[in-house]
Each structure stands twice: as structure tokens, then as C-alpha cells.
Design brief:
Length: about 220
């Protein structure tokens, strides 16, 4: 195939692509009003995923450099400097260690309890809105199926009102229009489900780092000086 042929075919391919895009858009519009809540769930799911991913990714920083500096300051007896270092970092681990540093001098069990309480609060913050994303993963396919049932009912009503023989075109158009909502609901549900599980796995990684760091800090306080 020559370059001239490729150039001559490019506008046709663009037109075909535009027609396909338009047909998909028109097909989506034929899903009816039930497509509106599915579209809203799609937008909410995307927003929650991006917002949670940015938050969790920020919390998933490597704590080793931070803990090395904290250990150095604590071993020197510079508690104020250790507090200031923790305050400069906005990660869950830093807030946990800051609470532990502020309790230095108290019984070890008191320090452990304080760190654990802060950790529970931080985990709650990390898991914020994840149940909503899980709800979208389950509800979107159900809403899509509801739209299909409604569409099928409407299609059969139109068939019953048709006089004479029923046109296959009328039957097929009613059915594929009704199935659009199920397809849309499944797409939103599957993507939301995958996003939810991905974020849960990222949260678990952060929790493991928090547990490891808290144990490391308690061990630091038990070291002889």
C-alpha cells in the first residue's frame, strides 16, 4: 500500500470512527432515564477512587528514613526535636510516633495504648469512603438489571398493543434497548469492584507499615541507654 493510498483512506477511517462513536452514544441514550443514576454512580466511583488513591499513596511512604532520624533524636534525648520532626510529616506513621514521643516517660503500656489509639483513628481515615465504593460495585449492576426489566416490560406492552403480526425489528429493538442498562451497570460495577479491592490492598500495606513502625519504636524505648 502506497503513502497516497494511506492518506486517501485516512479521512474515511476518521468518518467511520466518528460514526461508531456517535452510534455508541445514541445507543447509550436509548437506555432511558435509568442511565442517569448509573452515570452518577460512575462519576462518584471515579472521584472516590482518585481521592482515596492520592490519600493512601501519600500515606504509603517509606518510613525507614523518618524512623532513622527519630531514633537518632530520641537516643540523644532531644524529645522536642523528635516532636518537631514528626509534626513536619503529615503521614499516619508520623502522627502515631508523635503521640508515642509525647508520652515518653510514662509506663510502656501507656505509650503502647496511646500509639494504638492513634493508629485506629488513622486506619479509619484511610478506609474512609471505601464502603461507598463497595456499595457502588454492588448497586450499579442491580440498577442496570432493574432498567432491563423495566425496558422488557415496556417492550412487551408495545408488542401487545401492536395489531397484526409482530415485527421482528420491533421486538429486537426493544430487547437490545433494555439490555443497554445491564451492560452499563455491569461495567460500572466491575470497575468499582476492582478499584475497591485495589485500594483495600493498598490500605493493608499501609497498616503493615504502621504496625512494624510502632513495634520498632517500642523496641527503641526498651533499649538500654
Amino acid at each position: 500500500m502506497t503513502f497516497a493510498q494511506i492518506v486517501s483512506e485516512t479521512p474515511e477511517e476518521v468518518v467511520d470512527t466518528a460514526q461508531q462513536t456517535m452510534s455508541i452514544w445514541e445507543l447509550t441514550l436509548q437506555g432511558g432515564p435509568i442511565m442517569i443514576p448509573i452515570a452518577i454512580l460512575w462519576v462518584v466511583a471515579i472521584y472516590l477512587f482518585v481521592e482515596r488513591w492520592l490519600t493512601i499513596n501519600k500515606a504509603n511512604e517509606d518510613p525507614d528514613p523518618f524512623m532513622s532520624k527519630v531514633k537518632e533524636l530520641v537516643l540523644k534525648g532531644d524529645i522536642t526535636g523528635a516532636k518537631m520532626l514528626c509534626a513536619q510529616s503529615s503521614t499516619p506513621i508520623a502522627r502515631m510516633i508523635e503521640k508515642g514521643v509525647s508520652r515518653i516517660g510514662s509506663p510502656l503500656k501507656t505509650i503502647e495504648a496511646s500509639i494504638e489509639n492513634v493508629g485506629k483513628i488513622e486506619i479509619f481515615k484511610l478506609e474512609k469512603n471505601l464502603p461507598t465504593l463497595a456499595t457502588i460495585a454492588g448497586s450499579a449492576p442491580m440498577i442496570g438489571f432493574l432498567g432491563t426489566v423495566i425496558g422488557m416490560v415496556q417492550a412487551f406492552i408495545a408488542i401487545s398493543q401492536e395489531e397484526g403480526s409482530v415485527s421482528p425489528k420491533l421486538l429486537s429493538s426493544g430487547i437490545y434497548t433494555a439490555m443497554i442498562t445491564t451492560v452499563a451497570g455491569l461495567i460500572v460495577g466491575i470497575i468499582a469492584y476492582l478499584a475497591y479491592n485495589f485500594l483495600v490492598s493498598r490500605v493493608q500495606k499501609v497498616i503493615h507499615k504502621m504496625e512494624y513502625t510502632s513495634i520498632d519504636f517500642i523496641d527503641l524505648l526498651q533499649e538500654p541507654r
